[in-house]
Model the fold of this input.
Amino acid sequence: MTIKAKLTTFDATMIVVSLIIGIGIFRTPALVAAAARTPAVFYAAWALGGLVSLLGALTFAEIGGRFSKPGSYYKVVAESYGSGLAFMLNWTNVVILNGAGAAGVALIGAEYLTPIVFPGAAPTSARVQMTAVVLILALLAINYLGIKTGARAQNVLSLLKVGLIGVLAAAAFLAKRAPEGPAALPLDRPWLFALGVAFIYVFYAYGGYQNTINFGADVRDARRNVPRAVFFGILLVLACYLTINVAYVKVLGVPGIAAAKLVAAETARATLGETGKLIVSLAIFLSAMGFLNVTLMQIPRVYYSMAEDRTLPAVFHKVNPRTQTQEIGLLFLGGIILVSIFLLRKFENIVNYVMFLDTITLAVVSSSVFVLRRKAKRSGEAYTGYRVPLYPVLPLVFIVTMLAVAGNVLATQTREALYGSIFFAVGLPVFLLMRRVSRQRSSANKG
Done:
């Protein structure tokens, strides 16, 4: 069934913002600070990570302009390198990366909400997990209303996120409070190594913009508007991230950030008091809802593309003609997230599982820009859309950086990276099985 384009450029831009600004910026600064140890390395990690992410966004802007199809994160690899590799990458992407990533966001959102829902009670693991489960179930129900309704809600939630970051940063800059204790932690490793470890968590916080290309069939005039949305969305995120991290350092200092489990709430408490902490906790919970909502919107589009390529059952290709919602895809994704909530309990573990596979997938998908350009040149296609500047240098810098981060995860979190590699390899027999089942069903239908 054909997907109808209903989303505007503004809708797509807000989707970019929510794909990136989930919970990462409110939690990962603590992990970055613990790795960076000093303000200089901390700022360098966020600034350089933002620059590399901008290069990635520019690359994906061209991919989105040249390849405007539903579930393009899968489809562009399938058409560039073959369905087998596309399935193996997206097998890990849709089962581990997005399922575990969404579970991580749900758990952190629940951590912020639990003290409000259960005042005076300790935020036990069971309470946090059950709150996260309720959140996922509620969003699954909301997404049945349709993609345009979801986009309108997404616009509000995305603007709320940006407004929240602005209010928190303003409060920090206006506060007279200075960080307690030393300005830095002892640097017990070479600064370059510390920067490399910090990059693992920085890129987790910056990730997500690449998934905008999954809405290639949903955005009106996608060849023109998807690149615009990616570009303006990443610039807005960069401004937010750099501003809020300066605010964190001003109020808490790098040691204080490293010691703060919920760094945004600690900053709000230090600048606005206990009331501010509660308000910010609730607002960050709503930010988590925005990220989870857009995840539930875009991942089923990948299922659509995989079903079209006969690597998932045909039922995943079904779209409600009225709401443009994929009910089966939503239930499948929701089940993955719910299972991940109970299997991957620590946020740090989720980041380690996600980052090794995600950076490799990013490198492969972004490299498709070379294939798309070569195909266009051979066919004589008169492409007039967006082109990444300084081609091929900028895409190559981004790809090499992603592979370096993957290598860093392999060196520092070897067990998690190897588990992810095993899951990636398992995708091959699953792919062969799905293709065999598809052929058998096709033969049965013809008979």
